[in-house]
Amino acid sequence: MPIPDLESRTQALFSVADDWLGDSIVITPPSGDPITVKAHVSHRDTRLDFGASAATVQDALLDIDMALVPGKPDATWRIALPRIAGKTFQPRGVERDISGFRWEFGIKEVVGA
User: Fold this and answer.
1) Inter-residue contact 36 to 24 (CB < 8 Å)
2) pLDDT, greater one: 53 or 109
3) Strands 89-96 and 35-49
4) Range from 32-36, 44-48, 73-77 carrying the lowest mean pLDDT
5) Is 33 a member of any domain?
6) Helix boundaries (H) for the chain
7) I want to staple 73 with a disulfide (CB 3.0 to 4.6 A). Which of 20, 46, 66, 91 is the partner?
8) Which three-class secondary structure state does DSSP give residue 27?
9) 96 to each of 1, 23, 49, 108, how far by Cα in Å?
10) Bigger pLDDT: 46 or 91?
């Protein structure tokens, strides 16, 4: 019997890590019901420079298992994060991660949503 290697177990390892360490977020595709998933959410502050002035804004980077969502997220999807309550976001800059099993993207607030 062949010995399993790390590559063959990558998806299962990601799933366990999400269950143990992930934040519960709500993603709503444009033509679907809200989906609660566990994802890796890196909350961070980003500095915006306007020449003579600057501002610091809250930002986040999401890392989501592709198997948990129906397709590639785009700007029509809506996301709610528990640590930034009361605000709705949309994905921006969606790309596959290095493993090819996950979506990585930043978020942008949807004003008035």
Assistant:
1) yes
2) 109
3) unpaired
4) 44-48
5) yes
6) 6-21
7) 91
8) strand
9) 33, 19, 29, 18
10) 91
